[in-house]
Amino acid sequence: MAAAGILQSDLKWRGNIFRAGAFYQPSLVQLHKALKEFSNPFKTDEETVTWSALTSRRMGDKAAIASAMMAASLGEIRAVKVGKKLGDYAFLLSDVRRYFGTPLLESGMSIAQLSKATGWKNESIAHWIDEQLLEAEQIQLRGQLCRVITPAQLLRFRRSYIPLADLAKVMESRPSSLIDKLADVDVVGAKKLPNGAQRGALIRMADLGKWAMVGLQVSRGGLFKLQDYS
Fold first, then answer.
1. Would you say residue 207 has pLDDT above 60?
2. Crossing angle for the helix pair 122-130 and 111-118, nearest 10 degrees?
């Protein structure tokens, strides 16, 4: 906490039996007061981390811990649980993670890295995140905001959607040609370009499965209703 600049160290505390500890008490009281004033308590199912757990043994990055503590003292991240002791204050782990850029980036991919790995356009990935179709973590990296997609988030996205361009490639077709053939299939996530064209269209895997079943019924000469597969 001293490294974060939020507590004032008392270097001579050992030589005075009336001193409570290694920090000046007024600075500790002020920190406790600030965390309480900035707090926003509410019940949540999200994972939380307590102030006492912000240690290098658990979190690893001392500089990131200092940044997170400073952010909390300034109200940039707010406690969702208030305790009698400073160490009992709890924060959303997703809020705290923003200040631990390097470990999270190593476990996931930035937009640029995901684009290189998949061939998807940077602007399409960013648009999917903005539209909340693709989850991402927001972190600070060298002072700049950066969005990182974890393996679990990418897996959930791939289970839910397939980019039209990927489907066209598998079917040895062009996206513009394929979208005409899929006129009755809902397309989501497309970003409109200034020239009127669209980029980054997605098809829900569930919809694709329904139409595959419809096509199978037709090929067998059977009667079908689309709602049977809803």
1. yes
2. 120
